[in-house]
Amino acid sequence: MGLPMLEKLMGARTLVVGGSSGIGEATAAMAAAAGARVTIASRSQNKLDAALTRLPRVVEACILDVTVPTEVEAFFTHQPPWDFVIVAGSAARSGPARTLPLDDAHAAMQNKFWGAYYTGRFARVRDAGSITFVSGVYSVSPSAKAVLQGAINAAIEAMARGLALELAPHVRVNTVSPSTTDTPLWDGLGESGRLEKMNTMLVRLPLGFIAQPDDIAEAILYVATNRFATGSTVLVDGGDALV
Questions:
Q1: CATH number of the domain that residue 134 is part of
Q2: Which of 15, 117, 136, 191 is the most exposed place for a label (fewest CB within 10 A)?
Q3: 3-state secondary structure string, 62-104?
Q4: What are 144-158's pLDDT values in tens digits?
């Protein structure tokens, strides 16, 4: 990270929703290493406890279920304003529209879109601070096997652009859109399923390698701290949207 980003993170109160694993955890670790006062939030105490064993000791943790609007509102009401709020996304089942169970579809929308929306609605952010969401490349590069995921990602990006106008000039709002990233998210596929997914992406991506969480975390902290970035969607996808 360049010096200007380091300076802006020093001492900054930074909330990473979904900071207990994957991209969120990498973002929390990178921000803390730059001197930010980082809090990670998740609905799972076990995941938070495990993440704290891997993260710098200065990182704090709190339980927060962003799918419950009253809980989100109460959390931000009782916290001082944040410099940077980052919503790192959440795991959700995906699949073709004709076969994905509707209960799973509703849960995916609740977890990823409404969780982001509630955070954007209730987050208290200091002047010149920012909110950063994480979407995904399916918003611009659709997949027949992830129809709803593409729709959710596109909805998050559109929401962020509108919110950037609503909160300007005091708070900036941006989105980072990654492709497949090497995170524990894929462990649910089993060892063979994960290997197949990664090999498929290795062949597909123009750059010929899979992103690590730090690759996405760098982009998140860039838009979070850049004073002239708002309403942006930054693709960090290894060229996935090109093919």
A1: 3.40.50.720
A2: 191
A3: EECCCCCHHHHHHHHHCCCCEEEEEECCCCCCCCCCCCCCHHH
A4: 999 999 999 999 999
